[in-house]
Write a structure and sequence with these properties.
about 300 residues; 26 strands; about 50% strand; five-stranded mixed β-sheet; Neuraminidase; single chain; mainly beta; about 0% helix
Length: about 300
């Protein structure tokens, strides 16, 4: 079971309505300068769950608390197991009760989390964990959901998958459980993060099967395609609308990136050049992600501090 399927191959009244229709908003494309005039320097720290060769760090809050998981999920001996992490090395296991696998992905400033779990019938459900209690999040009529972000109002963003394998992004809250996000030109899409000012990051796949990132904020939709790349996914956004994610270059190498106000910066862990994914960012600009040979069941988490 994987978090980013395109890369790593990842009794109440229910309201279904449009949270934000990018179809009718201003559309811009950002493929500008690939690097800023003065690049941000980062100090990288490798993070590995003890006794496991597979660790991924997926989200970070403004207190520096981190969400992630260990275990490749490639076989029954290496299931995904969720955790939260307080640096330098205090891991707290967090797994949905009776689940076969769990990934913890989103974490807000109160330490409440979201993610997904796989049940005993191999069905994938989204979830949130607030005040010591787990609750599932499943879009009506679907059998595959992941809740990828959880922000300070205890509301989240994620996606469902239909019977054709296409993704459908949504925003979730207790007051109005499911609001759909419509992406122009998308055959399939995921909402990967929502920040505390209402911006949504994500990615979509177009009719030519090309992956593009996006940022939706204040009625404006920005298509994010890293310059010269063949594949771009936006995976996180902080309250300053600084976006992080991953792209693939023409040599089929994977790199992380940051993007803010049209300016891109490529990010590689020094130990994982060409295999780096940046999955989360907080308001201090601290990055979390992972690198490694994921297809072989090897992954190392990292924290990058500016």
């Amino acid at each position: 079971m994987t978090r980013i399927s395109s890369i790593l191959g990842s009794a109440a009244l229910i309201l279904s309505c449009t949270f934000a229709s990018a179809q009718n908003s201003e559309i811009a494309t950002s493929t500008g300068a690939p690097t800023p005039e003065v690049a941000t320097s980062y100090t990288f720290t490798e993070v590995n769950y003890a006794g496991d060769v597979f660790t991924q760090l997926l989200g970070i809050n403004n207190k520096g608390e981190i969400a992630g998981y260990h275990g490749s999920g490639m076989d029954a001996q290496h299931p995904n197991k969720g955790f939260t992490l307080t640096l330098p090395n205090t891991f707290v296991a967090e797994n949905y009760p009776s689940s076969a696998q769990t990934q913890v992905i989103g974490i807000n400033d109160a330490g409440s989390t979201s993610g997904f779990y796989v049940d005993s019938k191999n069905v994938t459900h989204g979830f949130y964990y607030v005040a010591g209690a787990f609750r599932p999040i499943d879009y009506p009529g679907t059998t595959f959901n992941q809740t990828l972000s959880w922000y300070n109002n205890n509301e989240g963003a994620g996606y469902s998958q239909d019977t054709l394998g296409n993704f459908h992004p949504y925003f979730w809250s207790k007051s109005t459980p499911f609001w759909s996000l419509l992406i122009p030109g998308a055959v399939s899409a995921q909402a990967t993060n929502i920040n505390n000012v209402g911006s949504v990051s994500g990615f979509y796949i177009d009719s030519a099967s090309v992956n593009h990132g996006f940022l939706f904020y204040n009625g404006n939709f920005t298509r994010l395609t890293y310059p010269g790349s063949t594949f771009t996914q936006a995976l996180g956004v902080n309250d300053s609308n600084e976006v992080v994610g991953t792209y693939t270059d023409t040599s089929n190498m994977t790199h992380g990136f940051t993007w803010k106000a049209g300016v891109w910066q490529s990010i590689d862990d020094p130990n994982g050049i060409g295999s780096t994914v940046v999955n989360g960012i907080n308001n201090a600009g601290t990055l979390v992600g992972f690198w490694g040979n994921v297809g072989a069941g090897i992954s190392h988490g990292f924290v990058a501090v500016p």
